Amino acid sequence: MWKSADGFIGVIVVVLLIVGSIATGSTIYIIGMITWIIVLIISKGRLPIKVTHFPYFPLFVYGIIISILASILNSFDIRNLIVEIINLSNPVLFLSIGAVLTLVCSKKNFLKYVIFSGMLVAIFQLYLLARNISTADSINSLRMSMLATPDIIPLTLILLMYRKNLKIDINKSITKIAFIITLVSFVASFSRTLILQLVIYILVFSIDRRFIKRNITVYLTIMLSAVVAYFFFINNSFGDAFIEKIVKSSTEVSSYSDWNQLSTILNNWRGYEVYSAKVQFNMNGMFDKIFGEGLASQIYVGPYAIYVGVNGMSIPYLHNSYYTLLIKLGYIGLLYYIFFLAINFFFYLKKSQHNTGYLLVIGIIAILAVNSKLMQGVVVMGHDAILLVALGYLSIYKNAQKTITSKV
Questions:
Q1: Quick one: CA torsion of 303, 305, 311, 317, rounded to 10 degrees?
Q2: What are phi and psi of 315, to 5 degrees?
Q3: What would the pLDDT profile of 377-391 be if each residue is shown by its tens digit?
Q4: Measured between alpha carbons, how far is 89 from 381 in angstroms, rounded to an integer?
Q5: Of 66, 372, 306, nearest in space to 315 by CA
Q6: What is the C-alpha separation between 40 and 100, in angstroms, rounded?
Q7: What pTM does this model have?
Q8: Which residues of the chain register pLDDT less than 50?
Q9: Burial class of residue 239 in the structure, from the number of CB atoms within 10 Å of its CB (0-12 exposed, 13-18 middle, 19+ buried)
Q10: Taking the CB of residue 55, how many other CB atoms lie within 10 A of it?
Q11: What pLDDT is stored for residue 289 in this prediction?
Q12: What is the pLDDT of residue 2?
């Protein structure tokens, strides 16, 4: 028997956060469903009426409606439709989990669970590095043997950096140990995305004058880490390759290249995906441009799909989720998603003037916007699950405490 409900909830949250960082998308989604059911039972069927200021849910409803209409007018694959509905529901599920957790889990405990989970994920990342670094022949093969993009690591770092400002009650010695482990894992991940995420968090916290002293410490820490990383990378083959990848980042996502050469397509696949989406969109009629082709539609990339593990000539979604939404849900779906990000960003930016905790919300929204450009984004099952849970929790925590709820 569990000694307390808090202990049981803590285990549930930690398992979700760890699985959400190390498992495949489908596994994360299934664990998310199980977690949602358990937490809903613990909350006695209560649900916060509102999740985030500007809701995502209408986009999900619109996607289903337009897909049904598209299926009537055109032939479609029922399996593709079901999978894509699940993909589009990804933010609905994980935002809802975060929202329900506000009713059964205190904020100080929730943030501690995030830090504890992040440290465990960091340790696992270091284990993967130690196990595979001797056999890896390139930075790409080393990255493939490690966790893809554990969003919880930069989130954990920022919570540890600003723990006093965010009123996170953790022992100073434990904080130092957790910070060192997480920072080493962060550097050893060789992930451009994680670096960008941490930079975004720090920039967001830099806009608040109340954090001037803490920001100076953070900047000095970053400068020292950068110097250490430089001397490590400069005489290391993996380091040289990583620096080269950073330099070529803009080329990889650009759709303006000579796509007549296979090497160019494979080296800049994300850019080629966007190019293919643009071609397909421009060939669509006005109805499809405005309302979308429906969720069951796919993006034609030709015979090159096999190089990314897809049989056939088309892929279900892109690394750039803005173009994925443009093809599937048209201008309406894309604009709504942009409004979802932008309106929430500026709403919580204004609220952060009175409550510094909302800076985390702003940082998460900004990262989701960037991930939507560089990665598959939230519209793929399991993706960005950690960030969505944190967003669902932190964006409404105070309101939820005022019992603004509905019964399921």
A1: -140
A2: -120, 150
A3: 899 999 999 999 999
A4: 8
A5: 306
A6: 7
A7: 0.89
A8: 1-2, 400-401, 403-404
A9: middle
A10: 16
A11: 94
A12: 44
CA-angle at 367, arms to 365 and 368, nearest 5°: 65
Q: How many degrees, rounded to 5, is the angle at CA 258 between CA 254 and CA 264?
A: 75
N- to C-terminal Cα separation, the chain = 27
Q: How far is the C-alpha of 236 from the C-alpha of 230, rounded, in Å?
A: 10
Considering only CA atoms, which of 266, 260, 131, 270 is closest in space to residue 193?
270
The C-alpha atoms of residue 153 and residue 21 are separated, in whole angstroms, by: 9
* Contact of 387 with 370, CB cutoff 8 Å: no
Q: What are residue 95's phi and psi, to 5 degrees?
A: -65, -40
Distance of CA 119 to the CA centre of its chain: 18
Q: What pLDDT, on the 0 to 100 scale, is given for residue 143?
A: 67
Which residues make Cβ contacts (< 8 Å) with residue 403, sequence separation at least 6? none
Q: Rounded CA gap, 52 and 396, in Å? A: 6
Instruction: Read off the amino acid at residue 224.
Output: L
Query: For residue 5, what are the contacts with CB-CB under 8 A and spacing of at least 6?
Result: 42, 104
| Contacts for 227 with CB less than 8 Å, ≥ 6 apart | none
At 3, is the secondary structure helix, strand, or coil?
A: coil
Tokens found for residue 266: 């494979």
pLDDT in the model for residue 403: 46
Structure tokens at 231: 């001397």
pLDDT at res. 79: 87
> Packing angle between helix 25-42 and helix 5-22, nearest 10 degrees?
160
Phi, then psi, of 56 in degrees rounded to 5:
-90, -30
Per residue in 159-187, pLDDT tens?
Answer: 998 888 788 888 888 999 999 999 888 88
pLDDT value for 401: 47
